[in-house]
């Protein structure tokens, strides 16, 4: 072994030892049940959980006796008691699809926030791929769309400055309802060795496998003795533990596609994902592999939404149409359905205002929120047209409906001093 090889080997061993020490330190902090139920962490979890919902009566009731509630929660967790109180169940209509929401109580949400911030997210995040961008700190829809643009730019350069290629857009059907609890428990057991943390996670997951549990004091919520109607699958949309678990659930599929199939341009946001290929045969092979991997985890590929399209024709991901032109420019546009839906919403809001069920200020806030969404998708022209409809329906009562004019920057050169 030469001197250069010896130095490289020594550097590799030092880096490996540093990584192992960092991993051991992280696991020591996150695998500590006493730390996540301490007063400091529970109070921090309460301050994060109340953001945006402090006007609700349940949050205000919890804050009135904050210290007493934190003390009772900590004592119950220390004694191993079940802190779940059932769900508040309701239905929402989103784009014509009915979604059944089972929301947990605020006292339970505080514990879940502390559990996720101090244990679940730091441990599970280490094993996730970088392009898994849902429900994680520093990531989100905008970050996932930016990563797709970066992948398209790299694909354009790697493909000889050409946009000839194929994209696979896939979607999982009834993703949250198909998640198996035994696979979730297997993920938890690999991540934690503290038995109290595993029991706490189990108590948050098991109730979602009991349909029609009701609001509280239901015997189906018992932790170690579920009833016969326990299905062993399904997670809820109103729980942070469920969201983080759903992000990590198809992690085996992500690593198989990235490492075994060697797919360089791949990304996933919860149950939506994409892959970029040069040849159509490779895209078809990847779809077959997906159809082979999904049943092993109990999830099903949505054949209606899974499709293979040409990259130059544009691809739709997260309700945004992204097109790679011949020159390498990337165009990001809103889908027509989202614009039509917003027009219908404004007309429906006008009826609500006339009936006295809404105020113009509430409508203005909702419209301003949609405009912020449109600006990030290069939809300034669509926003201008909808502003005209807004002024036609509501007049100029709401100042937020007006677009701010862009300031023109005038470049001035310094005048030379003439002698």
TrEMBL record:
Residue ranges constituting the Reverse transcriptase domain according to the UniProt record: 1-322
Alphabetized UniProt keyword annotations: Nucleotidyltransferase, RNA-directed DNA polymerase, Transferase
Pfam families reported for this sequence: RVT_1 (PF00078)
PANTHER family: NUCLEAR INTRON MATURASE 1, MITOCHONDRIAL-RELATED, PROTEIN YKFC
Gene Ontology MF terms: RNA-directed DNA polymerase activity
CDD domains for the chain: RT_Bac_retron_I
Organism this protein belongs to: Selenomonas ruminantium
UniProt protein name: RNA-directed DNA polymerase
């Amino acid at each position: 072994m030469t001197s250069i090889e010896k130095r490289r080997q020594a550097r590799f061993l030092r880096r490996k030892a540093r990584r192992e020490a960092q991993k051991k330190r992280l696991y020591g902090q996150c695998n500590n049940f006493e730390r996540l139920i301490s007063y400091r962490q529970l109070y921090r979890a309460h301050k994060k959980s109340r953001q945006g919902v402090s006007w609700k009566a349940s949050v205000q009731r919890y804050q009135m006796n904050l210290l007493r509630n934190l003390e009772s929660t900590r004592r119950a967790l220390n004694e191993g008691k079940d802190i779940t109180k059932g769900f508040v169940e309701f239905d929402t209509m989103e784009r014509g699809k009915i979604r059944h929401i089972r929301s947990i109580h605020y006292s339970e949400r505080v514990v879940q926030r502390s559990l996720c911030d101090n244990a679940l997210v730091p441990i599970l995040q280490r094993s996730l791929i970088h392009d898994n961008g849902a429900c994680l700190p520093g990531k989100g829809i905008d970050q996932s769309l930016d990563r797709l643009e970066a992948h398209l730019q790299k694909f354009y350069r790697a493909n000889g400055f050409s946009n000839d290629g194929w994209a696979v857009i896939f979607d999982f059907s009834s993703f949250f309802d198909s998640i198996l609890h035994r696979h979730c428990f297997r993920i938890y057991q690999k991540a934690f060795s503290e038995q109290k943390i595993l029991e706490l996670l189990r108590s948050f997951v098991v109730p979602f496998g009991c349909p029609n549990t009701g609001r509280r004091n239901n015997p189906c919520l018992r932790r170690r003795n579920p009833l016969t109607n326990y299905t062993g699958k399904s997670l809820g949309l109103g729980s942070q533990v469920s969201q983080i678990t759903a992000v990590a659930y198809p992690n085996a599929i992500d690593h198989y596609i990235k490492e075994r199939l060697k797919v360089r341009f791949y990304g996933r946001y919860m149950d939506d994902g994409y892959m970029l290929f040069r040849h159509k045969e490779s895209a078809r092979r990847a779809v077959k592999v997906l159809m082979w991997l999904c049943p092993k985890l109990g999830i099903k590929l949505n054949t209606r939404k899974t499709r293979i399209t040409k990259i130059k024709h544009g691809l739709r991901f997260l309700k945004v149409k992204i097109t790679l032109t011949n020159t390498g420019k990337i165009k990001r546009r809103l889908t027509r359905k989202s614009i039509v839906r917003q027009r219908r919403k404004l007309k429906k809001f006008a009826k609500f205002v006339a009936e006295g069920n809404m105020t113009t200020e509430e409508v203005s806030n909702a419209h301003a929120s949609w405009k912020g969404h449109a600006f990030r998708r290069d939809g300034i022209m669509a926003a201008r047209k909808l502003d005209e409809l807004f002024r036609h329906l509501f007049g100029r009562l709401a100042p937020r409906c007006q677009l701010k004019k862009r300031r023109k920057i005038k470049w001035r050169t310094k005048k030379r001093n003439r002698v």
